[in-house]
Specification:
3 domains; 7 helices; bacterial flagellum; periplasm; cilium; cell projection; Flagellar P-ring protein
């Protein structure tokens, strides 16, 4: 009876360890790690004018295209501008951009971004006049118009100027109306192509296996196949509706996998270390040399009743200090141990970046080092 209890305790402990390992795994829905190929966005662009600015628009001499666009717009409205010259600074030429969402239908609205092209100092308080937005094929898919929302502001006086944020760019919420739908039809597709946002063979195979396990119970046959590290093709069963099929499989949970990677941004000193990064046993020594130069010039006065002149005698003190220099042994079988070992040396982020580069050169960093 005692041996039976001991065996039962071992089985219970093994079950708890397996449950703990499963809980630490990265579980995500398919809709969060993959996107539908037929459901991608399309970029739109257009050229327009912003009017109603308080003297912060383009100077028509420095930006002649603004003058030409304003004259063309007035001429289309039936107003002749020949022989006249305008020096108004309440108009600015802008580029208008937007993302056309998938399956968008005519009549729906979307947000647009507006950015100045000329020498306008601020777009605050302006109104975007009717601007057509075209796609890469040259077709017009939306028309934008409305009041701009600019987050930045600028205050200027005679001797000082205060600027916060960007005043030459803004947004028009729901400012564009879709006039043309995309030619592709979702219902006419014969399969679903899922594209992983982070390509990985292990994750792609797990997505296919998860979908096939569900399809075996729901339709009686596997329907998914992983083509490569980024695409998983799901065939449509004869008795299934494509939209309902996508709704069913996008909420399936999959255990994701990511390659070991260390991302370093030397400009900002940012270091991002992945969870699977490991470091082989390696010894690291870090020391910094600080050189301080101090200039204390001295004024030398001539003796009384002499014909000498006051002179400046330079006096320079140079002091060199060397900090650190201790040797530490790093052995990072997991992320927590690696971070603790780097913190134990007591270096700053720029020093950690140099250490990681040295460890990678030594072949002890079992991860990809990405320098930005």
């Amino acid at each position: 009876m005692r041996y039976t209890r001991i065996i039962g305790l071992f089985v219970l402990a093994a079950g708890l360890l397996a449950a703990a390992a499963a809980s630490t795994a990265d579980i995500a829905r398919i809709k969060d790690i993959a996107s539908l190929q037929a459901g991608r966005d399309n970029q739109l662009i257009g050229y327009g004018l912003v009017v109603g600015l308080q003297g912060s628009g383009d100077s028509l001499r420095s930006a002649p295209f603004t003058d030409q666009s304003m004259r063309a717009m007035l001429q289309n409205l039936g107003i002749s501008t020949q022989g006249s010259q305008s020096n108004a600074k309440n108009v600015a030429a802008v580029m208008v951009t937007a993302n056309l969402p998938p399956f968008a239908s005519p009549g729906s609205r979307l947000d647009v971004s507006v950015s100045s092209m000329g020498d306008a100092t601020s777009l605050r308080g302006g109104t975007l006049v009717m601007t057509s937005l075209s796609g890469a094929d040259g077709q017009i898919y939306a028309v934008a118009q409305g009041s701009l929302i600019v987050s930045g502001f600028q205050a200027q006086g005679q001797a000082a100027t205060l600027t916060e944020g960007v005043t030459t760019a803004g947004r028009v919420p729901n400012g564009a109306i879709i006039e043309r739908e995309l030619p592709s039809k979702f219902k006419d597709s014969v399969n679903l192509v899922l594209q992983l946002r982070n390509p990985d063979f292990s994750t792609a195979v797990r997505i296919a296996d998860t979908v096939n396990n569900y399809a075996a119970r729901r339709y009686g046959a596997p329907i998914a196949e992983s083509r490569d590290s980024q695409e998983v093709v799901v065939s449509k069963p004869k008795t299934a509706d494509l939209a309902r099929l996508m709704a069913e499989i996008e909420n399936l949970q999959v255990e994701t996998d990511t390659p070991a990677k260390v991302v370093v941004n030397e400009k900002t000193g940012t270091i991002v270390i992945g969870a699977d990064v490991k470091v082989s046993r390696v010894a690291v020594s870090y020391g910094t040399l600080t050189v301080q130069v101090t200039e204390t010039p001295q004024i030398v006065q001539p003796e009384p009743f002499s014909n000498g002149e006051t002179a400046v005698q330079p006096n320079t003190d140079i002091m060199a200090m060397k900090d650190g220099g201790q040797v530490a042994i790093l052995n990072g079988p997991d992320l927590r141990t690696l971070v603790a070992g780097l913190n134990r040396i007591g270096v700053k982020p720029d020093g950690i970046i140099a250490i990681l580069q040295g460890i990678k050169s030594a072949g002890a960093l079992q991860a990809e080092l990405v320098l930005q």
